[in-house]
Amino acid sequence: MWSVLAGVLAVASLGAACTPSVTTVSGTHAPVTVCSGALIFADDFNSFDLEKWQHENTLAGGGNWEFQYYSNNRSNSFTHSGRLFIRPSLTSDQFGEPFLSSGTLNVEGGAPADRCTNPRWWGCERTGSPSNILNPIKSARIRTVNSFSFRYGRVEVRAKMPAGDWLWPAIWLMPAYNTYGTWPASGEIDLVESRGNRAMTHNGLHIGTQEAGSTLHYGPYPELNGWERAHWLRRNTAGYNSNFHRYQLEWTPNYLRFSIDDVELGRATPGNGGFWEYGGFNANPRIENPWRYGSKMAPFDEKFYLIINLAVGGTNGFFPDNVSNPTPKPWWNGSPSAATDFWNGRWGWLPTWNLNSNDGQDASLQVDYVRIWAL
Ligand SMILES: *[C@@H]1O[C@H](CO)[C@@H](O)[C@H](O)[C@H]1NC(C)=O
Ligand SMILES: *[C@@H]1O[C@H](CO)[C@@H](O)[C@H](O)[C@H]1NC(C)=O
């Protein structure tokens, strides 16, 4: 289907109709010629195209000690009725509960599609102990890292957020080549993130299913990240889990603009000092600016690829310790036994996931389509 479309685009581009675009692309599913305004990547999820979407296979926990194990398994990621579903399940369903606190899980496989995709943070092999159990949740994270990356364009993803305590869905973009160095020096674009708790408040605000956010991460090294100046939230009292919404990014050589259902959420428009000044990093003259020879959009002037995942928990503070929730948050973010504490608190969160009704759809991140256009 795509190759036919790509062929049509390529043929069309030979005619006079193709206005060249500032957008650039790469990857196995990138069009040969990029015409202004053209659809350059799309998936309606009428089938699960693993040529487009590579699964992560890792225990790494996203660098935040998140509680999930990502693998390529149709129990956790599948397409059905024209939608992509990422559905969480319990690791103990597959391996038995004693395995969590005593088993060794090695996720490295021999086939090309079974290789461990992230060895950091004990990502390829872990041994469980009673105080530090193996990742108790199975889930999925898929990415276009080989099939498609692009610089500048318009993105629209129609999706429905999951509901269930401590679920953390994300649709985001990461740099294809780390041109300015490793995270966060080459940037991160978070199109949408939310929290699955139906009735969680923090400082009086509902920060669960009624909140969705978009964020940019950028900075010279992990401890110096200017995300707080590029972070926007929107509230919806019906909950982002109750309907599909269109999460949108417009990314140009002048700004990054996030919208939900065509209503702008926020935008970052750096001045001539670029994101170095935008993030306030110029206040310290001793730090070298890795973007000094890039454009004012650097690090957001290089190619990024798309990621869709459903994470759970973690200790980085995305779920603050002081939240108010119908059942208490079962782990502290400073706990060395966070995964064990989370698992021991499953009497509180597991019933909220409704895994046994309607094929676990409540707790699933659902995506209707992904579309990316050239500028
Ligand atoms: C896929 O996940 C299911 C549910 O956890 C499990 O029973 C099955 O063994 C898994 N398949 C593989 C090949 O790991
Ligand atoms: C917030 O959580 C911390 C644990 O991280 C706890 O020590 C502190 O007492 C809490 N503060 C409030 C105001 O509840």
TrEMBL record:
Check the record and name the InterPro entries matching this protein: Beta-glucanase-like, ConA-like_dom_sf, Glycosyl_Hydrlase_16
What is this protein's record name?
GH16 domain-containing protein
- Membrane spanning residue stretches: none
So which residues are the signal peptide here?
1-17
Q: Tell me which family the UniProt entry assigns to this protein.
A: Belongs to the glycosyl hydrolase 16 family.
Which residue numbers delimit the GH16 domain?
A: 23-375
- Source organism per entry reads Chrysodeixis includens
Sorted alphabetically, the Gene Ontology BP terms of this entry are: carbohydrate metabolic process
Q: Which Pfam families match?
A: Glyco_hydro_16
Q: Which UniProt keywords apply?
A: Signal
A molecular function annotated in GO for this UniProt entry is:
hydrolase activity, hydrolyzing O-glycosyl compounds
Determine the domain of life of the protein's source.
Eukaryota
- Key word RNA-binding present: no
